[in-house]
Design brief:
Layout (H helix, E strand, L loop, with lengths): L1 H12 L1 H6 L1 H10 L5 H22 L20 E2 L2 E2 L2 H38 L10 H5 L1
Helix pairs in contact: 1-5
C-alpha cells in the first residue's frame, strides 16, 4: 500500500514518469475492472473462513499436566492483559517488523531511483522548452 501511494504521487507529479508507466497502469486497471467491492469482501471472508477451519482441524492438543500431577504456577515477565507473550514471540514480531521496514525502504528507494534518473535524463541531457511548458510540472 505504501508503494502504491508513492507510485501515484510520483505519477501525478512527473509527466515523464506518468508516460513511462501508462502501459502498466492501463493493463492493471483493465485486469481489475471486473472486480467489485462485494466480490473482494466475499473472497476475503471465504479465505479467512477456510483458513480458520483448516487450522482448527490440524491443531494438535498437547497435555497441560505433567505426569507428576503437580500444578506449578509460573509467571511470565512479558504479560500484557489477558494474553501472555513469550520472549520468542516478541522477537519474531520484531523480526517481521524489521523485514517489512527493509522491504518498504528498498522499494521506495528503487522507485525514487527511477524518478531521479528520469529527471536527470530529461533536464540535463537535451532539454528543450516545449510549447505547453508548465513550470509547476517542471519543478515537481
Amino acid at each position: 500500500m505504501v508503494f502504491f501511494l508513492f507510485f501515484q504521487i510520483y505519477r501525478g507529479a512527473n509527466p515523464k514518469f506518468e508516460a513511462l508507466t501508462q502501459d502498466f497502469t492501463t493493463i492493471l486497471s483493465d485486469f481489475f475492472s471486473d472486480l467489485s467491492f462485494g466480490r473482494i469482501v466475499f473472497l476475503l471472508f471465504g479465505f479467512s473462513f477456510i483458513s480458520l477451519a483448516v487450522s482448527k482441524l490440524y491443531k494438535q492438543i498437547e497435555p497441560t499436566i505433567e505426569e507428576d500431577d503437580e500444578l506449578k504456577r509460573k509467571r511470565s515477565p512479558y504479560r500484557k492483559g489477558p494474553m501472555q507473550y513469550t520472549k520468542s514471540s516478541l522477537m519474531k514480531s520484531l523480526l517481521n517488523e524489521y523485514r517489512v521496514g527493509i522491504l518498504i525502504l528498498a522499494t521506495l528507494n528503487l522507485l525514487l531511483l527511477v524518478v531521479n534518473s528520469i529527471d536527470i535524463t530529461w533536464v540535463y541531457f537535451g532539454f528543450e522548452v516545449p510549447e505547453d511548458f508548465n513550470l509547476k510540472q517542471f519543478v515537481h
